[in-house]
Amino acid sequence: MTLTLGKSATVTRALTLEWRADGSLWAVRGEEERAVSVRRCFPWSEPGRHLSLRDADEEEFAFVRDPAELDPRSRAALERALEVAGFVFEVTRVLEIEEEVEIRRWLVETRQGPRAFQTRLDDWPRGLPHGGLLIRDLAGDLYHLVEPKRLDKQSRELLWAFVD
Amino acid sequence: MSTLQQLDDYIIARYTAQPTRLPAELRREIERAWEGAPVQLYALADLDQSLRLTETWLALGPRHVAIARRDSEGWDVRSIERLRIEAVREAPGLSANTLTILGKPGEPALALLRYTHRQRRAFENIRFVLDEQIQGHARKLDAADADRLYAESIARPIRDAQALVSGRQTAVIRRLLGYLTPYKRQLTLGMAAATVITLVSLVPPYLAGYLIDRVVRPAQAGALPLTRAWTIARIAVAAMAVVYLVKQAAAHIRLRLMAILGEWVARDLRDELYEHIQRLSLSFFSRKRTGSLITRVSADTDRLWEFLAFGVVDVSLSLVMLTGLGAVLLTLDWRLGLVMTLPVPVLCWFIYRHGENIARLFIRAWRKWSRVTDVLSDTIPGIRVVKAFNQEEREIERFAGRNEDVTAEFNRIHRSWTTFWPLLVLGVHAMTVTVWVFAMPRLLGHGVQLPVGTFVSFLLYTTMFLGPIDVIGQMARTINRATTSAHRVFEVLDTEPEIRDAAEPVRLEPVHGRVTFEHVTFGYDGVRQVLRGVSFDVAPGELIGLVGPSGGGKTTIVNLIARFYDVTGGAIRIDGVDIRRLDTGHFRRQMGMVLQDPYLFHGTVVDNIRYGLPDAPLAAVVAAAQAANAHDFITKLQHGYDTVVGERGHTLSGGERQRVSIARAILHDPRILILDEATSSVDTETEREIQQALERLVAGRTVFAIAHRLSTLRKASRLFVIEEGRLVEHGTHAELLNIRDGKYRHLYELQLQLQ
Q: The whole model's pTM is what?
């Protein structure tokens, strides 16, 4: 059986990436070029590989299996884009977890600053493949607890019910 | 300011720690820079370029957008003329989105803003308006809506998830107790009975002490003649028997009255709730989960029954009992009374803490329990896939692992309460022992004298402490649970239906079926329009095919014709009368709908066919089924028309369900009929039968038919091509095919190629 790969899934060597004055990441492949954004296919299992470059219409323009296959300039440009695309709040301290009618209210310190957010009572933090917890709030923002067991005592106590 | 906006402002202030609106001084500064032009929309970019939390505002006016960054000296405001904007691009991320506003190609971006998902809806509003402008469609905005739209965009996810009811917890409890008002008599009797139980419970220990000190000991010492002692003792024992009789009679009255009263209140709540749910608009149902609404009518009202029937009385009488006991003990002997009463607050606190700890354990157990039910809800409906991929063993292991986990958690809970309660009772016993320690010397003649009878009364009273302490210790939890349920119930009751009849609604008799759209615009929120100025006039009896790409607005058009929503601009007229002036109930009786996934109710086939006309004669039901090509398969069923079709009609195939729903529509005999993808999910033979049935159904009615398979619309009087909320082409099948580069022709050719 032969699997036919789409145009976008072809070799990444011919692909170059660069940041231009318009503030966008541009992907150039032969005659074609497009402003693209990066989507990680495995944001938690393998965040650094299998990257989908998508244009403004959300069409996949190119697929980067491994950034190591790109030239150094393109790789650096891609890494900058990945920072934004993969951004989630990184929780460093849990200050409060309170239950209210139908929602759970969280107050946390993150690397980005203090943050209050809410989850549904039946939405539980999700364990990640390489350890750590991921919480999704009502608006869809994500909060990553890299090593819950290494947080301070108060945070650990508050998190106790949510960590295996 | 509307109540909804007040609620949104409250949500933003309480839950998000971000400004409830654009700072007033910044708004003034921006409007000054725009020479008085108003801010019409705004959004908060809460991430800076290095992805730290910040406060940057994007404001949109009639001719400009402004970007305002807070710096050490105030606001740094930069305005951009909207005419310079040639493209707006949004790059979504896991939690950081980037909006890039672009001018001429190749030039530096005019603005680049980063924001979390919490702000995304507000940015999408602005992006929508700019995109419309770029495409040459001016979008009029009312500056007065700016605050409302911003607040709604931020607060909505929380508002939709949470049952927020205005007022504090005490106000919610008062409102809940208001449901007892119609049953004042029963309530008064029930409370009186409960008070009698409490008061008479205090009598037996007192009598015991009295008998020992005033009868037994004086008689033993010879100070009271035996005959007199016998008489008093008989009276006292008889009194005790009467007391127990009265107590149990009162208990009977209290339990029965309060249980029945609670049931009545729960029934009233359920009725009121269900009636209100039936009147609510579709938008409410799209915001709330079905399961959550079912729970409100069932489990929440049940929990309120428990609270009203027993919680209210138990809590109030426990307080009375504890106060009474304390007073009696202190009166009998204040020294020993202090030994018993001083630790009571500590015990209540222990029970409260234990409740908190158990709640924490339960959160953990529920989390693990949800992992067990996840496996069940995955694998039982998907059992064919499990078997097809030979994954039974893996699924068994997965379930066993999670089952083991949850068992461990529940055992942890059992370890906690089975340790706590014996310890608590031990604490009460320790108080009793302390009483003995202090009492013994006094009973033996050292210190202040203590009569034996008084001591016995005292001991009997101490055994009555534990019950009320338990109730009061759990009072916070009982009230919390009840108010949570009350919030969820009241939230529904407080939601106003968005579709309301005019003061003097018009009844069209008969409805002829002319449907006119006049520059209709519609959006599910205030900014993004799903329909953008749609106009058409459909004569009675026309069959209109609505075609076009998914998400173009076809279903919205039929939803507006059925008045599930009201237009946001323009007007829809039925036989020349604005649809908003019609009696909605009467109008909907003239409408019929056949949907892609026909919904049958649990009940018999005949009940389902005459759902819209419950009194229709059986002969009419058979005629409708015959016209719908359903009669044949129905008569082959074991119980014919009396066959129970099960929940959602699951015992029938998709095509059979569809034909029953067509029979339902035929019997209903509507003047205006909507067919929404009525044949899309069935095989070719079934489709042919359904198509025949539909041809009989549509005759003589105004019909709007949505279909992706264009071949099914060949008999349409006219076809409307709807794309991006606009009517882009209309005409007969032949006319539209003749348009070179026409949208319909393109769609038609694509489908031919696929065939």
A: 0.77
